[in-house]
Amino acid sequence: MLSPLPSARAMVPFVSVGNMMRLVHHLGVETVLAELTDAVEADFRRWESFDKTPRVASHSRTGVIELMPTSDGTIYGFKYVNGHPRNIAAGLQTVTAFGLLAEVATGYPVLLSEMTILTALRTAATSAMAARHLAPRGTRIMAMIGNGAQAEFQALAMKAVCGIDTVRLYDVDPDATRKTMRNLAGSGLRTFACASAQDAIEGAGIITTCTADKQFATILTDNMVGPGVHINAIGGDCPGKTELHRDVLRRSDVFVEYPPQTRIEGEIQQMAPDFPVTELWQVVTGAAPGRRDPRQITLFDSVGFAVEDFSALRYVRERLAGTDFYETLDMIADPDDPRDLFGMLQRAKAATR
């Protein structure tokens, strides 16, 4: 007797945007950010076990579409993500994403998930992980330059992981700053709207830049940056898009995710191919020093890397256990005889009569 229904392995757990939001609120936003920071750090500690390649990017005049794959030998993962700065004018998201995990042994998917919200969470978690290792100890003030979709996630991650209690905000669009202040009301963070980037970084121990324009920009210049700060530069993430003057890089100890990708997409695309950088996983594992003295300027030149998305998807998969924050999709053709795919198709025709 042929089974009329797909087997359990053919049914893939799917986390929709709605269910992702339910999961995050069930756990608590700051709890998710703190736990996700630990999940990313755990995978950085086993960095050498992952396949690594620069993301595959398709650039256009209006933006970029990218695939970001990796595998730890047991699980394979990838993310589809776009970056279209002009979307905002049409009322669309600048970044949208989805991702998938699959068993290496069989190739069968084990999770499909939205990643627009999850990318914002994992980007903030990665920033917080870097700051945990590189920022000056005891810092309580953060400057957030660029107050778009990522700003609140960044601020709350720094609060949950690094103990930040004050955020100084600046954006060329005052409405974006007002939006961020409104969303952070009641979070326990003190927020201040600033008139300029220079004003925002006054007294800040952590400076985060996150602007969206796809162009060479100068958000921070050398004369603006004093000694002893940590900078998370997360807005530059493709060729031709940067946020910092090169003199800031020359004064800083620069830390990156994956040099072959960052030298193409990050702030260091402005520098010579042999410009010295340290891979962040080496700091996490103790193989290389991070912050060495109070006056040192540390800079995390972050472009986002596939291992971080893998960590985020792995975390979600683990956190789904025992919940109903997902649905199942009939994604895998599942004939009773693996060699008889056409027969399965024919039986489906007969079943519709």
TrEMBL record:
Q: Which domain of life is it from?
A: Bacteria
Which Pfam families does the entry mention?
Answer: OCD_Mu_crystall
Keywords recorded for this protein, A-Z: Lyase
Q: What class of enzyme is it?
A: lyase
Q: What is its EC number?
A: 4.3.1.12
Q: Molecular function (GO) terms listed?
A: ornithine cyclodeaminase activity
The similarity comment for this entry is: Belongs to the ornithine cyclodeaminase/mu-crystallin family.
Q: Do you know which NCBIfam families this protein is assigned to? A: PRK07589.1
Its recorded name reads Ornithine cyclodeaminase
Q: Can you name the source organism?
A: Labrys monachus
Upper classification of the organism:
Bacteria, Pseudomonadati, Pseudomonadota, Alphaproteobacteria, Hyphomicrobiales
